[in-house]
Amino acid sequence: ESGTVAKVFAELDSWKQQFEEVSEKAQTLTESCASFDMPQPRFDGLESLEADITKTADNWEMLKEYTNEVDVMAEMSWLDFRGNVFALQDLATAWAEKVKEKILAGEHSLVTDFLSEQLDQIKHAMPALKFCRGEPFGEDHWAELLQGKLGLPRDVKLVGLQVKHFLQSLTVLMDPGTVTFVKQLQARAQGEVTIREALSELKAWSQTTEIKLL
């Protein structure tokens, strides 16, 4: 959750500050001992602690960078985004490579596990997501998808629909049954559009055509 992530970043900043204070004290003690020709003090574990804090901070900074990128995309209107839905897949592919590099470098952590899971969900949700563009959808089709299948609140309508609503539903979207559902919904909606267009053409023809009887 974003709140938990923010809390971790705050704690990391606190740890860094505390470590810097300890390091300054260690440096002061070392300089003082040198001034009085005393043996140099040993601070066992200080270097390993610094390396551990740096490694942890780097991993969480990676998560922060990923979260920022996804948040920008998440706030976009679905009407604006749906024409370029594969941008989400491109983002996931690029980040999967970054995570892979981290793991190969021996920097496996809770962050890489979390990112791997998130990116895998996006990858498996894409087959269903591409059928959620909904160009031919009417209000009833959107209700079937958003409330019926994805379980979103009733107040989530097309007008206020954002990418984040689909990101919140990745576990449903990645289900193989959802792919079948959205394919059928798309086909039905398109069929209804065709019927409406045919009826509209028939109505226009009937209003402009004169039939003379002999």
Description:
There is one protein chain. This protein has 214 residues and is mainly α. 14% of the residues are buried. Helix 4 packs antiparallel against helix 5 and helix 6 (139-149) runs antiparallel to helix 9. It contains 9 helices and no strands. It has helices at residues 2-35, 46-74, 78-81, 86-104, 110-129, 139-149, 163-167, 170-173, 176-208.
Structure, briefly:
By secondary structure, this protein is mainly α.
Distance between the termini: 78 Å
The residue-averaged pLDDT reads: 83
Structural class: mainly alpha
How many strand segments?
0
Shape: rod-shaped
**Strand residue percentage:** under 5%
* Strand and helix order: HHHHHHHHH
Q: What are its keywords?
A:
214 residues, mainly alpha, 0% strand
Task: Describe how the helices and strands are arranged.
Layout: H1 2-35, H2 46-74, H3 78-81, H4 86-104, H5 110-129, H6 139-149, H7 163-167, H8 170-173, H9 176-208
